[in-house]
Automatic annotation (TrEMBL), chain A:
Protein's name according to its UniProt entry: Alpha-D-ribose 1-methylphosphonate 5-phosphate C-P lyase
Function (record text): Catalyzes the breakage of the C-P bond in alpha-D-ribose 1-methylphosphonate 5-phosphate (PRPn) forming alpha-D-ribose.
EC annotation from Swiss-Prot or TrEMBL: 4.7.1.1
Gene: phnJ
Domain of life of the native organism: Bacteria
Keywords recorded for this protein, A-Z: 4Fe-4S, Iron, Iron-sulfur, Lyase, Metal-binding, S-adenosyl-L-methionine
Reactions the enzyme catalyzes: alpha-D-ribose 1-methylphosphonate 5-phosphate + AH2 + S-adenosyl-L-methionine = alpha-D-ribose 1,2-cyclic phosphate 5-phosphate + methane + 5'-deoxyadenosine + L-methionine + A + H(+)
BP GO annotations: organic phosphonate catabolic process
Family: Belongs to the PhnJ family.
Pfam families with a match to the protein in the record: PhnJ
One annotated GO molecular function: metal ion binding
InterPro entries: PhnJ
From TrEMBL, chain B:
Coiled coil: none
Source species taxonomy: Bacteria, Pseudomonadati, Pseudomonadota, Alphaproteobacteria, Rhodobacterales
Protein name: Phosphonates utilization ATP-binding protein PhnK
SMART domains assigned to the protein according to its UniProt record, in alphabetical order: AAA
Span of the signal peptide: none
TrEMBL record, chain C:
Gene Ontology biological-process annotations: organic phosphonate metabolic process
Keyword Transferase: yes
Keywords, ordered alphabetically: Transferase
InterPro entries xrefs: PhnI
Protein name: Alpha-D-ribose 1-methylphosphonate 5-triphosphate synthase subunit PhnI
One MF annotation (Gene Ontology) recorded for this entry: alpha-D-ribose 1-methylphosphonate 5-triphosphate synthase activity
EC class: transferase
Superkingdom of the source species: Bacteria
Any one Pfam family match given in the protein's UniProt record, by short name: PhnI
EC numbers on record: 2.7.8.37
Amino acid sequence: MSQEYNFAYLDEQTKRMIRRAILKGLAIPGYQVPFASREMPMPYGWGTGGVQVTAACLTPADTLKVIDQGADDTTNAVSIRKFFERTAGVATTESTRDATVIQTRHRIPEEPLTEDQILVYQVPIPEPLRFLEPRETETRVMHALEDYGLMHVKLYEDIARNGEIATAYAYPVKVEERYVMDPSPIPKFDNPRLESAAIQLFGAGREQRIYALPPYTQVVSLDFEDHPFNPSKADHPCALCGADHTYLDEVITDDQGGRMFVCSDTDYCSRRQADGHRGDMAPPVLEALS
Amino acid sequence: MTPLLTVRDLSKTYGGRIGCADVSFDLYPGEVLGIVGESGSGKSTLLNCLAGQLVPDGGQVVFDTRADGPRDTLIMSEPERRMLARTDWAFVHQNARDGLRMGVSAGGNVGERLMAVGARNYGDIRSAAIDWLGRVEITEDRVDDRPTAFSGGMQQRLQIARNLVTGPRLVFMDEPTGGLDVSVQARLLDLLRGLVRDMGLSAIIVTHDLAVVRLLADRLMVMKSGQVIEQGLTDQVLDDPQAPYTQLLVSSVLQV
Amino acid sequence: MYVAVKGGEKAIDNAHSWLAEERRGDVAVPDLTVDQIREQMALAVHRVMAEGSLYDPDLAALAIKQARGDLIEAIFLIRAYRTTLPRLGHSRPIETDDMACDRRISATFKDLPGGQVLGPTFDYTHRLLDFKLAAEGEALADTAPIAPVDQAPMPRVTEFLNRDGLIQTEQASDATPPDMTRAPMAYPAGRPLRLQALSRGDEGFLLGMAYSSQRGYARNHPFVGELRIGKVPVSMEIPELGFDIEIGEITVTECETVNQFAGSKTEPAQFTRGYGLVFGQTERKAISMALVDRALRWQELGEDNVGAPAQDEEFVISHSDNIQATGFLEHIKLPHYVDFQSELELVRRMRLAAGADEVKEAAE
C-alpha cells in the first residue's frame, strides 16, 4: 500500500514548497507565512497543517511521536501516527526523549525538549487577532504596522468584566518584541515552555499558514503590569505519579461528584511511575512494573 | 510661530468631478478653523484628505511633528501616518458608531489609544478612562457599559473622550453635532468649547451649521463646488460676508 | 485504584470494521456496483467531480460508494486523491462556443439561432413519486429521441448583445491565471481566482448566497442569458510535438447571466454579466455561481457596496469550500479536554472569587 505514495505522502515538489515556508518562518519568528496548503486525506481542522509540516520535516532516520491532549493514545494521535507509519515507514515512539519529531495538538510535553528535536503544532486558527478583526486584509496590515492596541483592549475587557484575564488557552504571546502570535490552543500553563531549545513549527492547513519559533526565541505572554500573566493549573498533585508541577486532566470517577486529577502528558506520568513516584490512586508497585 | 498645519494646493477629483480644488491655508497652535458649505461643497472631502483618510491627487499637508518638526504627511510612510493618527491627531466622526467600538466597554474604548501607544498598567488605564469619562460628563458607574447602552449624545461624548485621551494636538471633527437633538447639541457644543479652551486644542471642524462655528471657530473657510470662496475671522465672515454665496448662506440661517 | 483510559488504537480499528459492515448493508441485497452509480446516480457523480475538482466519473462513483452516499465525504475522498496526482501540464482553455449541447436555453430571447434545446431536465416534470421505478426490471420507454442528430450552430446569446454594445465587454487576456490549488489565497483575490473558488465551492453555500442576492442583499436583477450543458473537447499542447492534441472530452455546464445595466451621464447604459462554469451537469450550481460572480463584481462595475454578504469577496471565498468547512466544523468532535480543563479551572476560580458566600448560602 505504502509504495503507491511518495515518502511521507506528499510529493517532493510540495515538500520543498513547505520547507521554503518553514525556513521563512524561522527567519521571521512569529510571522505567519502563507503557503499553498494541500488537501490531505484527513479533514481540515484535524491536523492537516501539522501533518504537512511533519511530512516536510521527516527523514527516513527520524523517530516520530504524535500526541493529542498530551497523550499518545488519543484517537486522533493514533490516526496520525498510523498515517506516517504507513506512508513514511518511520520509527514511532511514545517516549518524548526518544523522538526526533513530535507532532502535537494542544500540549507541550512536560519534559524539556532538546536542540535535536522538532515540535510540530497543529493550529486551527493561526491569527491571534482573528476574533477581534475578522478580515485577513485588515489583520495583515495590523501585524505589518505592529498595530496591537486592540489585542490589549481584549485583555482590558477581560479584566473589567471578570477581574482577570479570562483567556485560559491559546493565550497570545509576543515573539522577540515584534509579532503577536497565537501559540495554538495549548493551555496557558504551557506558555512558559514556548521558550525552548527545540525548533517549534506551527502548521495551519485550512488557513494556509506556517509560522515558527527558532530555538531559544524570546516569547512573552501578553499581560498588564498590575495583572501579570499567571500560568495557573488545577491545584492538585497527579493521582497516579504524585507530580505537583504538571498539567492535569480532570477525570470523573463516578456520578456522585467523585473526580481525580492525572497528568495529561501520559509519557511523562508513566516514566515517573516507573521511577517509583506514587500518587494517591496509583496502582500497586508490582503491577505497575510488570 | 510655526503653523501646526500648513496646507498648500490640495486637490482631489472623483473621475471628472471636483472634490476640492487648490485649497491652501495655515492653522496655528490653539486655533480652531471652521469649514462651512452646503452638502457636496467638498468640505468633507477636504477634511478626509487632511486627516489621511483619502488620498488627494496633489498638494501638501505639512504637520509640525513633535519629533522631526514640519513633515508632509502625504509622503510619510503608512506606519508613521498611523502613529500620528493615534497620538497627535484625533478624528471625531459625525456618526459615533463609526468612531467607537460598539462591542467594547466605554472604558475599553477610551483606553484603546493609550494601549496602542504602549500603556500596560491596567489600573492607570482605567483611572485615565474614568477621568476622561468624567470630563465628558459620563459617570464612573457607566465605565463597563457598552456604547450600545448609551444615548446618541452620550455616544458622541464618549467618542470625544476616546479621541482626546492621548492629548492630541490636532482634532478633526466631521459634523460633530449632526444628527443630535437641538438640546443635546447645545450641551455638546458647550462641552466642546470648554475642552478646546482648557486644552488649548487646535481643531478643524466641518459643519453646515453656522451656529457651531460661531461658537467654536476662530477662523472660517466657506466652500462651494470644491473651492474656497471666502475665508477670514469667524465674526468678520459671518457679520460682513463678501462673497454673494456667503451672504446667501448667512441670511438663510438668519431667517430660520 | 485507577488505570488511565487506553485503547484508542483498538477503538479506531473496531469503528472501521463496523463502518465497512454498515456500508455494505444487508448482504441479502446485491452489492451496488461502481458502474451502476456512475450511470444511474450521474448527477451525484457530477457534483462530486465538480466540487472535488477532478473530472473522473469512475473515481467519483467509487468515492460515492465508499462514502455511503455522503457526497461531501465523497468530494473529500476525491480531493485527497487529487492532491497526490503529479501535475504534468495544463490544457488549453476549453471552447464552450463549440460545445455539443445536450441542453441550451435562454431566458432572454424567445427564439434564437440554434434554438432552445430543453435536453434532459427536471424542469417540467411533475414532482410525483414514480412508483414504477420501485418495481424491479424497469424497461426504458422508447418514445423520445435521445439527442438531436445534426446540431445547428449555437452562437452565444451574450454575443448578440455585445455586437450592439448593449452589454459590458469582457477584457480578453492571455495572462496565465493563478491557481488556487498551488498558491495560498490572498485578498483581494481578483476574478480569476474568485471564479476558480466558486467553481469548486459548495453548491448549497453558493445557492444560499445567490438566493440572498435575489432577495435584496445586493440585488443584481439577473436573467439567464444562456445556459448550456454538453461535451467539449479538451486539448493540450505537447511540447515535444509542438502542437495541440485532443486528450479527451468533458461535460460542463455554463451559465451566462445578463444583469442590471450600469451607466452614467458619461457612459451609456449597458447590461452587465455574471459567469458560471462547472464540471458535469450541474446547472443549479452554475446559475448560482453566475449570480455570486456578478454580486462580487460591484467594485469593478462602479456599484455601491451595500454590505451584503454576497458582495464580500473575502467572506464568500473563505467560506465556500465545503471540505474546509466540514473539517473545521467537525473537528470540535475531537477531544478538547486540555482546553476545557483550563477553562474549567478559570471559571471555578472566578466563581470562587465572586461571591463564595452566596454560593454557599444557596447550597444550604
